[in-house]
Amino acid sequence: MVSFSRVSSVCLGISALAGSLYVLDSTGVVTIGPPSHGSLRGVRRLQAQQGMLGMQQGQQGMQQGMQQGMQQGMQQGMQQGQNLGNQVANTGSEFGNTLTDRGSQLMNHGTGYANRGYEASSRLASWSPSDFLNIVPSQLKALIIGLQVAFAILYYCTVVSNYPYWNGPTPMSCKLQQEPAPCAMCQNSPTNCCLSWVCPQARAAHTFDKTGTIEYWCGLLAMFLCPFCTLCYANACTDLNPKLGGEPANFISSALCTWCCSCCVIAQDAESLDAATGVRTELCGVSGGHQQGQFGGPMAMGPPGMYQQQTMQQRQW
C-alpha cells in the first residue's frame, strides 16, 4: 500500500516536471532539443536577427550600387560631354574654314574688281575726246570727216551767214555762263545739243565767228586739226566768256572742262550766244527776230569791231 502511494507521487512529480519543462520550452526560457525543433520565440528571434543582417547587407548593397552608379554615370557623362565637345569643335572648325574660304573668295573678287576699276580709271585718265573715233572702222573715218566738212560748208551757207553778230550779253546768257558746262546742257535746245555732239567743229566755229573771237573758216580748220587746244584757248585766253556774260575762265578749269566734256562747253557757249542775240539756231536756218540788247540798240548785223568800247563796259558790269 505504501509502495503504490510512492509510485503515484513519483509519477505525479515526473508529470509536473514534464509540464513545467514544456511550458518553459514554449515560452523560450529553456530550449529542449535542436534549434529546428525549438520554441516559437527562439525561431522569431533568429528570424529577427537574420532580417537585421539582411537589412544591413541591403543597405551596404544600396550604398555600393549608388557609388558604382554615380561613378559610371560620371564617366559616361564625361565621355558624352567630351564627344559632344569634339563634335562642336569639329563643327566650329569646319564653319571657320568655310568662312575663311568665303572671305578668301570675296577678297579675290574684291581684288579683281579693284584691278578692273584701276584699269578703267587708267583708261579714263588717258582718254581724249578724239578717242571715240577708235571705235569706228578705219574705212569709215575718212567718210565721217568728209561728211563733217560738207556739213560745215552747208551750215555756213544756211545758218552762219544769216546769223546776227553779238551785241552784248543778256540776263539769260549771264545765267547760262554762271553754271557748270554739264549742268547748262539741261537748258540747251535740242538743236544746239545735236550740233555740239555730232558736228562740234562747225558749231564752235559759229560761236567764235559771231562773237568776234576767231573767223569762221580759221576756227573751223583749227577745230578739225586740234579741237582741244583751240577750245581751251578760246575760253581761257580770249574774251569769249565775258562777251557772253560770264567770268574770265581760269586756264586750269577751262582745260579740265574742255578735256572731260568739250561738247558740253561748246553747247553752253552756243546756247549763251542764242540767248544774247535773241535768235534760235536751227539745223538749216535761223529762227526768231531781232531784239534790243542789254545796253540798248538793235542787234548788230555787221562785225563787232565797232563795239569794243561797249565790250569793256560789259566786262566791268
Summarize the structure in words.
Among the domains are: 1-38, no CATH class; 139-316, no CATH class. It has 13 helices and 2 strands; from the N terminus they run H-H-H-H-H-H-H-H-H-H-H-H-E-E-H. By secondary structure, it is mainly α. It is rod-shaped and about 195 Å long. Helix 3 (138-158) packs parallel to helix 7, helix 4 (171-178) packs antiparallel against helix 12 (262-277) and helix 6 crosses helix 7. It has a two-stranded antiparallel ribbon. Residues 290-302 and 304-317 have low confidence and may be disordered.
Shape field: rod-shaped
Q: Spans with pLDDT under 50 lasting ≥5 residues?
A: 290-302, 304-317
How many strand units? 2
Radius of gyration: 61 Å
**Terminus-to-terminus distance:** 188 Å
Q: What is the succession of H and E elements?
A: HHHHHHHHHHHHEEH
Q: Tell me about the biggest sheet?
A: 2 strands, antiparallel
Q: Roughly what fraction of the amino acids lie in strands?
A: under 5%
Please name the defining characteristics of this protein.
mainly alpha, disordered C terminus, 71% helix, 317 residues, 13 helices, rod-shaped, two-stranded antiparallel ribbon
